[in-house]
Amino acid sequence: METKTPTLKSYITDVPDFPKKGIIFKDLTSLLESPEGVEQCLEALISTLKNKQIDKIVGIEARGFFFGMLLATALKVPFVPVRKPGKLPRKVISQSYELEYGSDVLEMHEDAIKSGEKIVIHDDVLATGGTAEAVCKMVETLGGQIVQCNFIMQLDFLEGAKKIAPHTVFSAVNY
Ligand code: AMP
Fold it and tell me: Ligand 1 test: best mutation among 25, 131, 152, 174, most atoms within 8 Å of CB?
């Protein structure tokens, strides 16, 4: 009998009304629990990067760390974490960005990227694009060249790709 490979979407769990009413949270933990799913997801994330020169992967706290680190290891390049304020011990560059209510700040080490380095930014979900836009700004302020913004999932109806245009966006799964 023919066995069918599960689609990547089938590993991701929709959790309605989390963290608040009206939001459908895309839960990644069910994907992380499946070695086959993780392998399939990593392969999809790498598929468009194989013949490109990439110097570093920048991953966004916290869910961007899981596959960001796997991507960096697979491509044999350094991983750079973007963190919430006050977590990184050395000199940082900061960028604020708008949330639905209020604003937030992200930070990265100032010496994490050198001028001219080719960078892939990775996060789990591209929603409105505010988070990724803030990270693009920091990377470019440090002189990095953004090769691609890379996501496991993209919520197309929120048009995040428009916000980070003209940067190239790749998502393994679109909703
Ligand atoms: P945004 O800045 O609106 O693109 O939001 C992206 C960030 O919020 C990512 O770091 C995601 O982890 C998180 N996020 C936004 N919407 C969702 C969702 N529906 N499910 C899971 N995470 C989400």
Answer: 131
128 lines ligand 1 (CB under 6 A): yes
Nearest protein Cα to ligand 1, atom 5: 127
pLDDT in tens, 30-74: 999 999 999 999 999 999 998 999 999 999 999 999 999 999 999
8 Å CB contact between 12 and 28: yes
What pTM, to 2 d.p., does this model score? Answer: 0.97
* Domain 52-174, CATH: 3.40.50.2020
Residue 81 scores a pLDDT above 70: yes
The string over 133-169, giving b where at least 16 C-beta atoms fall within 10 Å of a residue's C-beta and e elsewhere, is bbbbebbeebebebbbbbbbbbbeebebbebbeebeb
In whole angstroms, how large is the CA radius of gyration of the chain?
16
Say which residues have a Cβ less than 8 Å from residue 170's Cβ, sequence separation at least 6. 45, 48, 148, 149, 150, 151
Q: Where are the alpha helices (DSSP H) in the chain?
A: 29-32, 35-47, 64-75, 130-141, 160-163
Given the residues 33, 83, 100, 133, the one annotated as active site: 100
Write down the domain spans for the chain.
Answer: 52-174
